[in-house]
Amino acid sequence: MQEAVITKAAEANDVMLVAPTGTGKTLAFLIAVYNKLRIDDKGLQAIIVAPSRELALQIEQVFKNMKTLYKVTCCYGGHSMKLEQDSLRNSPAVLIATPGRLADHIDRDSIDVSSAKVVVLDEFDKSLQMGFHDQLKMLFNALNGKQQHILTSATHNDTLPGFLPFRTPEVLNFIPDTEDTQKLQISVVRTKSSDKAEALMRLVAGFNQEVCLVFCNQRDAVERISAVFKYHKFEHGIFHGALEQIDREKNLIRFRGGAHNVLLATDLAARGLDIPEIRHIVHYQLPPREEEFIHRNGRTARMHAHGKSYLLLADDESLPSYLDKTLPEVSLSKSLKLPPPPQYVCLYVSAGKKDKVSKGDIAGLFMKKAELSGDEIGLIVILDYASYVSVKRSVLPKVLRALKEEKLKKIKVKIEVAN
To answer: What is the CATH number of the domain that holds 209?
Structure first.
């Protein structure tokens, strides 16, 4: 798929890539974009639009990991407008942005987008579903019409929005004709309406700490189920659009780092997020549209992996028309037995990128001062003004004792369990 995208983008002006989640679309279009960049061109050369902040940040990280010589700037809602405008004054070669924040910068004349060579709309159908039609139209009105266009999606779309300056892109379709049922096992779990949240806990507890993503249709349902989990002291995280950006980032960091094995989420988590390989998907509420069901299940059974998807159905609910009515059923344990706590704990460190702190600095501090081995340190994430480190739960007391009052880059830092 990646080879096909890179080859086609070199010869065709308008390309649409349709491929399942987890197949490497990001690297495919980033290499295609990189091949268009020129080191002697000092203006903006490429624009990449993503429907969510998390996806935009993930694309930025992949581009940075490519170790090119080109400047990249990422702009998204919830981030400092002033920091973004300061970065845009010295025009980046590549601008990655969410539709709303990009429209804000165009409106403020923060950057001239007109002469960009390449425009990528990643998960473009999701941007339209989320109501960004006007913001994307503003972008295309500000362009000079000479750009190459690359569109990506995990589901095929027969109609294109009217603001696009082309109608017949070269389509690269890598969606299989039939679902690989050997890789993804779908089962039904039946329960009483009054017992549904506890049935969910009994189901998830039986996964033996394997990573699990639970989908709900509304953020209110996520919060309601979370309250039940908290009452039973069942470790979990939540993820939905009403959370503050920093809380969304922290919950994803905990999940990715193994400090939470269960994430309760809306469909915001169904696409593009950099999260661990997931063995279990639970549909606490089934989506009305088959496309969202496909995207949710795309978080598991990715590439060559195998996964399981569970449909939690109360006695007053029925399967939607897009599902086979003869799906196998699984039964639950009659009692709730909480699993052991997650293997890792997430720690907060009060210094980040703006303090010139690197992952190596943090790993060095934890290994030298707290005497941790490399396998006792997990995921390290550096944000602008804070960092987060996953450590084995068994070494937590030793770490907190050893790193109290310690300095990092000559700065006294606070290190504590992330809240």
So the answer is: 3.40.50.300
